[in-house]
Design brief:
Shape: globular
Helix content: over 70%
Strand order of the largest sheet: 1-2
Largest sheet: 2 strands, antiparallel
Number of helices: 27
Structural class: mainly alpha
Number of strands: 4
Length: 682
């Protein structure tokens, strides 16, 4: 990878992509001749990780500039591909289609917010950060706001937002390996971790860049192939981006039939009654907790006496173990179950309904839903424009002009996936509504039980008719894309291809995030503050050691399955936007912003976001013994949009404190001038 000129690089990656297509065809032929599905899964897993590891080894370096910013020699088109792979994480690849499937119109907030964020990057930040140079975002904060306080706050925010984000990626790797290779989820997490480390450990940003270009080729092929085949099967036209509107009309017809089915209505009523039962238990605490313990004990003893092999015994034993010991714990536990039951019992919303009212009688459109939609778009846009691992990519281009151009290429490569995600959701919904709903529960497809084993699909026949109603099917959004080939009955090699693409998306983003965390700690803390005379060798040793430690810690957290991928990613965006966006924007465009204002704004914005996120999202923190800390959202805004408060607080704080404080020095204002008006060929 020593030759960074565009011509040879195009030949290298064209050959690589062609070889990957031949590999897919070879596996397809072998599957026809009886190759077991697990072997196909192993082939995709180990070959792709071997390819990434080979690139990582070939791109190893002992140069600080190469390790942190790839020598600032990456051509715009390849930086765009690398940024696209860095950006299209497990959330975009796995979570976006699932969110659009479950929430329909509301899910478009992710598409609009993430793509709109790149407009902010291109217009407001990328060229100015490239003009500044250096290695990290805390570097810019320290130079603009004069000293280590801004740098240290920037390091903390970088580590926090990136860590939450990387946990989501490693969690996605665990899902992929556990389903397609048959490994236990926790083991799969650490197998994926090994794949992450071989890409970034030896070569830093240089290795990560060229690995991400290779990963983009795999993930975009893996994303487009299944839905293209599905589009051809359903419509006869292999262009899903153009045909899914026709299929959406069929989905609307199916919705009318399914939603009004008497069995469906009955199942929803049962879920509502269950929710009311939980509500009554909460009202009757603490007596209801003792009654529930006694009821479970009596039922278990009765079943053990009559038939000790019955599965109901196992289910009741599990229910008794999960029942909290205290009244406060039971209150939070039953409140969660009540909300879930009431949500499933609510009137279903049509896929195309904008700002749905959540089943509230007499209300077609909800102001709360509209507010949540707009606030999420805002948070994702400013979060995109403030994510350190994305902004660092624009330090790697040769010039400001190339930085601007690479933003264009980034957006183009990202749109190839984002314009396809709505099609995935519609085609998957059509297949499930037309072939799965209304079928016998005793004869469900194999994919339902396979994904059910890892907790992403669950079936509950609440009305006991032996037929699957829509409300009785619970799907985790992360499963939609991964299961689409199986839902559509495509060959297993297509499932393996999707898994390889999802793995590439998760690994590429995890590589960039881990490198960002390690760079912030080693460069901004170890080198810039504690050991400014450290040798190049020691700086790289510290960075690699920290990268390893953070990676293992993130894998340990991910193995606990803390939340859905998309939720964790949305939290990371809120944290990054609240911490960095006001300080970066005002740092570039307002000379009067001073150090006290920036540090205060970053800290307060981050604290408000964390406070709101935790209070709205979390009812209990068991490992701290804290219970009942949840609160009602302000104006109904959910925790995934917590950054809307932090960004507002950050801007107000920086402006007010700066206006009442001392103006920045002449040197700082000259620095802003030099960054603000970069030479295009500089």
């Amino acid at each position: 990878m020593a030759d960074y000129t565009a011509g040879p690089l195009r030949r290298y990656y064209a050959f690589y992509t062609a070889a990957f297509f031949l590999f897919i065809l070879a596996l397809a032929v072998l599957e026809r001749f009886g190759m077991p599905p697990r072997w196909i899964g192993y082939s995709f897993l180990f070959l792709t990780i071997f390819l990434y590891a080979t690139i990582g080894v070939l791109a190893r370096t002992a140069s600080v500039s190469e390790y942190y910013v790839a020598g600032r020699r990456v051509p715009a088109i390849f930086n765009g591909m690398a940024t696209g792979a860095d950006w299209m994480s497990a959330a975009s690849f796995m979570g976006l289609a699932g969110t659009l499937y479950l929430s329909g119109y509301q899910g478009l907030a992710y598409v609009m917010g993430w793509t709109g964020g790149y407009v902010l990057v291109g217009l407001l930040l990328a060229p100015y950060l490239r003009r500044f140079g250096q290695y990290t975002i805390p570097d810019f904060l320290a130079a603009r706001y004069g000293g280590n306080p801004a740098r240290l706050v920037g390091v903390f925010a970088t580590v926090l937002a990136s860590f939450v984000y990387v946990v989501a990626q490693i969690y996605g790797v665990g899902l992929i390996t556990s389903r397609f290779v048959g490994l236990q989820f926790e083991i799969g997490v650490f197998v994926g971790l090994a794949g992450i480390l071989v890409c970034s450990f030896l070569g830093g940003m240089r290795a990560v860049t060229w690995t991400q270009v290779a990963q983009y080729a795999i993930l975009i092929v893996a994303y487009l192939v299944p839905v293209t085949i599905l589009s051809y099967q359903v419509t006869g036209i292999p262009v899903p981006q153009l045909t899914y509107g026709h299929v959406l009309q069929k989905v609307q017809v199916l919705e009318e039939r399914i939603f009004d089915d008497p069995a469906e209505i009955e199942a929803r009523r049962i879920f509502r009654e269950r929710g009311e039962g939980y509500r009554e238990r909460i009202r009757s605490l603490p007596e209801s907790l003792d009654e529930e313990k006694l009821r479970l004990a009596e039922q278990i003893n009765e079943l053990k006496t009559s038939n000790p092999q019955m599965r109901e015994v196992v289910a009741l034993e599990r229910e008794r173990r999960e029942l909290p010991a205290t009244s406060e714990g039971a209150r939070s536990y039953w409140d969660k179950l009540m909300r879930q039951a009431m949500q499933r019992g609510a009137e279903p919303e049509h896929h195309v309904t904008p700002y749905p009212a959540g089943g509230q009688a007499g209300e077609a459109v909800s102001d709360t839903a509209r507010l949540n939609f707009l606030s999420l778009v805002f948070c994702l846009m400013v979060g995109t424009a403030a994510l350190p691992h994305v902004l660092m990519r624009y330090y790697t281009t040769p010039s400001v002009r190339e930085a601007r151009s690479s933003v264009f290429w980034s957006l183009l490569f990202i749109l190839a996936l984002y314009l396809t995600a709505p099609a995935y959701a519609v085609f998957a919904k059509y297949e499930i509504y037309s072939t799965l709903i209304g079928s016998s529960i005793a004869q469900l497809p194999v994919w339902v039980s396979a994904w059910g084993k890892i907790g992403l699909v669950s079936i509950e026949d609440v009305n006991g008719d032996g037929v699957l109603q829509l409300v009785e099917l619970a799907l985790n959004p992360d499963v939609i894309l991964l299961a689409t080939p199986e839902i559509a009955g495509l060959p297993y090699v297509i499932s393996g291809l999707v898994a390889a693409g999802a793995l590439a998306a998760a690994l590429s983003t995890a590589d960039g995030l881990l490198l960002t965390i390690a760079s912030a700690l080693s460069h901004d803390v170890y080198y810039k503050i504690f050991r400014p005379n450290a040798t190049t060798q020691w700086r790289l040793v510290v960075s690699k050691s920290l990268l390893l430690v953070v990676a293992v810690l993130a894998a340990s957290v991910a193995s606990q399955k803390p939340a859905t991928i998309l939720a964790m990613v949305a939290w990371a965006f809120s944290l990054a936007g609240a911490a960095f966006f006001p300080a970066l924007i005002l740092g570039v465009f307002w000379k009067r912003a001073n150090a006290s204002g920036a540090v205060s704004g970053m800290i307060l914005g981050l604290l408000v976001t964390i406070y709101y996120m935790v209070r709205v999202q979390v009812d209990t923190i068991p490992w701290l013994g804290i219970q009942g800390i949840g609160m009602e959202p302000w104006f109904g805004i959910q925790s995934t949009s917590a950054g809307v408060w932090g960004v507002a607080v950050g801007f107000v704080t920086i402006i007010v404190v700066s206006l009442f404080g001392q103006a920045p020095s002449k040197e700082t204002q000259d620095f802003v001038e030099s960054v603000r008006y970069p030479e295009l060929d500089g």
